[in-house]
Write a structure and sequence with these properties.
single chain, alpha+beta, 5-stranded mixed beta sheet, elongated, binds copper (II) ion
Length: 305
């Protein structure tokens, strides 16, 4: 079986590092071999037909065609195998992924928010509670729009690009986006989820191997899409605690600036360099401002700048 699984590796799949990943790998492996068999089968048949029914031997076309039922049987077998794959394996596995979430008590909870072209991670901090977020409060120094008046948000952690999780514990990630549709993809964990502005969609996995893995954006989301990568570090429980502690110390007491004030020296709000506003992006919100990721200069410009 091991050598059969090599087809996934040959096609560029990184080694699996999650508890459920082997099931995905088995389906992929079967599909790849099945497609290879179909490809070879159809190619051989095509060449056979070209030679067997060449014009030199059959100057006159036969309008009646095939007289045996073999092609019908073959087609039916292919459809049957595909139906079994879909109904017997793929849909039940997908059902398990979306219906059987782990208990939030033993899981690590993280919010992942995509933006052109980065992943922000929001962690609840020592109190275990996520602070309120509001798109109207988004600034360069408060990329997720954390509400400074919400006590639950005082100890929250916001990290850019690199997420740490402990090994052997389920991780639930709530995925959303600040601007366009992205896709939070963890190839090594065999899981991906679209990040859709205005929706919060949970996904979960359980890492079983420590290491550093890639987080990528799986939807073509703009000019910088190719560079929209992050890192997922799966730590031992001790390393994870050390990382958390370090992040909490680095963050210090959270004093997010009031929404309309910008810290001295911070550039005025405007489009991130290299981004292209979506077509008609100027009229998406109620006050006529662009989407929350790029607040309009009039709406949030500092009175001091
Ligand atoms: Cu993206």
């Amino acid at each position: 079986m091991r050598s059969l699984a090599l087809i996934n590796e040959l096609l560029g799949q990184p080694p699996n590092a999650s508890a459920h990943g082997f099931q995905i790998d088995h389906i992929l492996e079967f599909c790849h071999w099945f497609m290879a068999a179909l490809f070879v089968g159809w190619s051989v048949y095509f060449i056979y037909v070209l030679i067997r029914f060449r014009r030199g031997r059959h100057p006159q076309a036969d309008h009646e065609g095939v007289r045996t039922g073999i092609s019908t049987h073959l087609e039916f077998a292919v459809v049957l195998i595909e139906a079994v794959l879909l109904v017997g394996f793929a849909i039940p596995l997908w059902g398990k992924r979306v219906n059987e979430f782990p208990d939030t008590k033993d899981a690590i909870l993280v919010h992942a928010v995509g933006q052109q072209f980065n992943w922000n991670f929001h962690l609840p901090g020592p109190d275990g509670k996520f602070g309120k977020r509001d798109a109207d409060l988004v600034t360069n120094s408060n990329p997720l729009g954390l509400d400074p008046n919400d006590p639950a948000g005082k100890d929250d952690l916001v990290v850019l690009g690199e997420l740490h999780v402990p090994v052997d514990r389920p991780v639930i990630i709530e995925v959303s986006s600040k601007d366009v549709i992205h896709n939070f993809d963890l190839p090594s964990m065999r899981i991906a989820q679209d990040a859709i502005p205005g929706s919060i969609i949970p996904m979960w996995f359980k890492p079983i191997k420590t290491g550093t893995y890639e987080v990528v954006c799986g939807q073509l989301c703009g000019l910088g899409h190719y560079g929209m990568k992050g890192t997922l570090v799966v730590d031992t429980p001790a390393d994870y605690q050390a990382w958390l502690k370090e992040r909490v110390e680095l963050a210090g007491p959270q004093t997010a600036p009031a929404p309309t004030q910008r810290p001295p020296g911070e550039p005025p709000v405007g489009p991130t360099p290299g981004t292209v506003p979506p077509p008609g992006g100027g009229n998406l919100e109620k006050q006529g401002g662009p989407p929350d990721a790029r607040p309009s200069p009039q709406a949030t410009q500092s009175p001091h700048s």
